[in-house]
Amino acid sequence: MLIFSPARTVYKRKSSESAEEILRRLDDFLNAESPQLATWLYSVFQDQQAAVTYKELREAAMNGYEEQILQWQDDYARLINERLAPIYLAAMKAGAKAWEEKLGGVLLDDSDRAVQNWIRDRTAELVTSIGEETRAAIKTILWKGQQENWTAAQIARHIRPCIGLTKSDAVANARYQQSIYDSLLKAHPRMTEASAAKKAQEAALKYAARQHRARADMIANTELAFAYNRGENMSIRSAMREGLMGACVKVWRTAGSERVCPKCGALNGKSIGFDESFDIDGREMFPGMHETPPAHPRCRCVVQYKETAAPARGGSSQVELPQKLGDIDDYLPKEVNPRAQKLFQQYLNDENFVVDDTLQMPMAYNPNTGKIHVNPREPTYSIYDREEMYAHEIAHLIDGHNGLTFAMAQSIDAALTDSCEYILANRKEYQALMDGADGRVMSISDMFAAITTNEVVGMFGHEAAYWEIFGRREFEFIANMMTIYYTGLRRGEEIINGIPALKKFYRELKEQYGLYSNA
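Above: the chain sequence. Below: its structure as tokens.
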């Protein structure tokens, strides 16, 4: 259930701190904590490099390294979950500390679902990112080896220094190793190729050690900055909800020195709404990534939070707003099918929903709070089918709380790829469906929009830029499939069963439901 703190006196205070003070706090934190994390990450990279033998590398070279990469990724997942999750939490608490001291009380609770969700999603993304970067680095070396007719042993000698490196670092290391090898043979004509290769690899391993240190330092600073800024953001959200602060805007702040990059320099002083994202170039790797700094690796920018209104609760400016779903009972879905009824009985409650008059859309699952925000007074609320709309956002909530998209990532990717190819091969037929009654059904139209990234779409969908954000296509695809199931939409199931890849995935998805819902 939602818990609202009783009205309390809010003492007069500055509306915001100076940018210099906020920047100093972040710098002090990173300077104190990042060296320890960087040292640990460096040891992980070095241990991975030392753990695999040349025999294993040569055998892996013959099989494309995929099995070995998966093993490394499993190792990273175990190590990161064991070590990094508590470090993320400590960084988030550090970000919230100043506001807790200023306002009094705990604003960021480590048992809060939103906090746990963020840590889980961020660790999962980091594991995936490291694995993908290692895969890209190794594939680059394999390609280079194929182009230059290297033997499996030569490929193995070039691969080992690159374990834990990015693609660009791997390329630089391979070039360095080759240049040392060539220089030795040229300078010492009597030296054997085997001896030159051994000395070149020793040099490459030393170079890789420097690269690993630099990469570990970069990851440590960037990840701690992510967690610190997110913790501060969550504490401000909590303060606004409890009536300790009024509505806030976010202002991007840089150090203002000559070291500030052009990207952050352009953002300096930019003010946006609390729930909005900053206009940062590049792909959003996870939901909410651009709501706070960092904008890039090693970024040390901060957000300055400025109140634009008095606190909504407490003092003379107290404003009573609907707090619970019972206050908007007339706006809730009523007559629904048995599946949806069971779903709503389980999830349609104050533990999972927030009535939010500031929301500029009818309803949305917020991954930062771990709840569904609903604004029944939003003008377009009445346009949507309520049973379908609520089921869709609950599907997002189930996914967000349980990591369904991550668990089924390979199946989702295959379903999206194959069904998109099938639909576009029969574009005329399916666009005709979207131009008719089927295109006026939200879950059907939006499912096609997600699969084809708006190439075939009906009345409902998302802007093209939305699909470019990492993970959004997958999140919406699975939510629409779940909505069709929960609402018992027979026409939706008929369409799914007519597309082989969707039929296969839908069957697999239903088998997974027992893990996440009793519906």
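Residues 1-16, 313-322 have pLDDT under 50 and may be disordered.
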